[in-house]
Amino acid sequence: MSKLSKIYGADEFAKPVVQNCSFTIERGKLTVMIGPSGCGKSTLIRLLAGFERPSGGNITIGGGKPVTGPGLDRLVVFQETALFPWMSTYDNIMFGPRARGEDTPEMRAVAEALLQKVGLAGFRKKYPSQLSGGMQRRAELARSMINKPDVMILDEPFRGLDAMTKRLMQEYFANLYEEFRRTTFFVTTDIDEAIYLADRILIMSNIPTQVRATIDVDLPRPRHVEDITENDSANAIKMKALGLLHEEAMKSFARGSKAAADFIDAYARRMVKD
């Protein structure tokens, strides 16, 4: 991603959300993006996934291939469940292979193995409405991994789960990453989650967003929750990240009141003009 920008609207209503944003998602690494609320994280995900086109700059994948739209090389796990409610857990996981004409014995064996790994073998015939929130998240992770995307993109996937379920999901995901080492771009607002999972953390600025700082997380793997709560290096990373995030959040609050006033003024001027 190089010198990326995204602007919504036009003229006096133009709103730059991403501006001169550049970063690299390293192959086989887990990159975590964190930033103040409303800074443009979800916009960056849509741009990376190819759901939207940038206003400027470019995005490339796999050694220089430009991203011009959605593709099988990228897969997004959204905040809200995207499981098909009329399909069983097993059928949801097998949806991608079947859509590609790959409903083979080998792929079915992969699906069964993934069901085991995410602890859902006993729920293979259940429908999403019969699964807990954590189980739905695990099913979505399995459905993503069976497609073997070049880049997995996760947009706050554990948001809204209760504290214990969220912790268990973080552990499930960390274990899956350890085993498969899939290139991953993970978005969160939870600094502890970021440190627990990441090889590298991108601290994003207030809107229009760009990378404020990059922090390498050199904690050994596999990790445990205690690595975050009792490790001096982890605590140093946390203090640095929190300081930067606080600065950007304060800018966001200050900008909010001015932005509202500017919008009302622009709207009033447009109404007079019309």
Summarize the structure.
The chain is an alpha/beta fold.
Secondary structure: elements and pairs:
Layout: E1 2-8, E2 15-21, E3 30-34, H1 41-49, E4 56-58, E5 60-61, E6 65-66, E7 74-77, H2 89-93, H3 95-99, H4 105-117, H5 133-145, E8 151-155, H6 163-180, E9 184-188, H7 191-197, E10 200-204, E11 211-216, H8 225-229, H9 232-273
Parallel strand pairs: 3-9, 3-10, 7-8, 8-9
Antiparallel strand pairs: 1-2, 1-4, 5-6, 10-11
Helix pairs in contact: 5-6
Features:
three-stranded antiparallel beta sheet; Rossmann fold; alpha/beta; globular; 9 helices; single chain
Low-confidence regions: none
The first-to-last residue Cα distance is 40 Å
Structural class: alpha/beta
Task: Provide the gyration radius in Å.
Answer: 20 Å
pLDDT average, as an integer? 87
**CATH topology label of the largest domain:** Rossmann fold
Number of strands: 11
Largest sheet report: 6 strands, mixed
User: How much β-strand is present in the residues?
Assistant: 15-25%
CATH superfamily label of the largest domain: P-loop containing nucleotide triphosphate hydrolases
Specify the oligomeric state.
single chain
CATH hierarchy class name of the largest domain: Alpha Beta
CATH architecture heading of the largest domain = 3-Layer(aba) Sandwich
Tell me the overall shape: globular
Helix content: 40-55%
Number of domains: 2
Strand order of the largest sheet: 7-8-9-3-10-11
Q: How do the helices and strands follow one another from N- to C-terminus? A: EEEHEEEEHHHHEHEHEEHH
Count of DSSP-assigned helices:
9
